[in-house]
Write a structure and sequence with these properties.
Blueprint lengths: L1 H23 L11 E3 L6 E2 L4 E8 L6 E7 L5 E5 L4 E6 L5 E11 L5 E11 L5 E4 L2 E3 L3 E2 L7 E7 L5 E10 L8 E5 L4 E2 L3 E9 L5 E11 L6 E10 L6 E2 L3 E8 L7 E6 L6 E8 L3 E5 L4 E2 L4 E8 L5 E11 L6 E10 L7 E2 L7 E2 L15 E3 L10 E3 L12 E2 L7
Parallel strand pairs: 2-8, 10-18, 11-18, 20-27
Antiparallel strand pairs: 1-3, 3-6, 4-7, 5-6, 7-8, 9-12, 12-16, 13-15, 13-17, 14-16, 17-18, 19-21, 21-25, 22-24, 22-26, 23-25, 26-27, 28-29, 28-32, 30-31
Amino acid sequence: MRSTVRAGMVATFLIAVLALSRCGGKSPQAPTLPPAITPSSLPNGTLATPYNEELQASGGVGPFTWTVNAGALPHNLQLLPTTSNKAMISGTPDTAAQAVAFTIQATDSTNHSAAQSYTVSILAEPDTLSFTPSGLSFNAQLVGNTSATQAATLTNTGSSPVGITSIAATGTNGTNNSDFGQQNTCGTSVAPAANCTISVTFTPSQFGPRTGVLTVNDSTVGSPHSLSLSGIGLTSGTNATWSAPSIYFGSQSVGTTGSPWLITLSDFGTTTLNIGNISSTANFSDTNTCSVNLVSGASCQIDVTFTPGTTGALTGTLSVTDNAPGSPQTVSLSGTGALGHGSGYCAVNLGDNTLTGYCFHGAPPPTFCALTSEDTSCAVGSQAISPSGVGCGPRGAPQRVDLGRLCP
């Protein structure tokens, strides 16, 4: 009987313990792991090509806060949280760069954090873009008026799309940027083995030659790609314009002719230029290809030469008479006559300062004439001729070499 009671009491105790454990007891939990970021490395990006790479935080207690805590992401990329434990580095890189280093940090809700360092390069694509044609030349156009459109084709010969950052048509004459305009079908990229069209117009802001450039900034190593632009602006009525207001010929030996200088006469008017005469003053001469009538937008060339008749600074004028306002139009000419390195002038009589004729150098002299010699190593500014004697002349009249003559 006692054993039966004892067994019942034990059973009751065990049931009570079991009930208590179910009501108020806790099961043991696994310890929380510290946070970590994956992946451990990121791929390089391509210029002007969308970049999207996912980062994930494991361990810790979400949600996570994501930051760039060292360095900086490649230009135009950003770090964006996507879920409680994920983030995305995304954007379209617009600047090529090598080995950009930065560190990403993820911090969980218990203020525990993990950091992961990355190095990413933004690479340019191979140069697969080309223009057709290589340049656009517009017909002469009245200032302020817009020309007909001309088209250029931009072709991608590669197997990958090429990103287009910008397309612009600008002028290169001084600070002018308004002579050329463009519209295009290129968008933000050119597909593989495809092309797009860029339509260009010319609106001259001044009369005369106008130049410009069409520029495409893109994702290839050949960026920027450019196309030359040119046109002529016209003024209403008749016009005569020189390509330069003056010509300086430098130093030229007296009695000799230097190389010609080329100058251009142009009609930048809307009507024909009627040319009456082209001439140049003493010490200068000219030849030209100009016809009597120079049509609108046309030009002709004039070659001008300098033949000094005496020493010193010499000036002259090239002029054209025509039916344009301000006729005659002129170009200032200047040069310096110099006694060159060679045969020297001689005085007829000793003490006579009038220099005439030439002395003999290394050649048989006239009767009783002593030789003079030229210094072959003549330094600039030194005496060009050194006398070896006097007494030239068939009658024994003494002559002398011009010792004041200097090397050019």
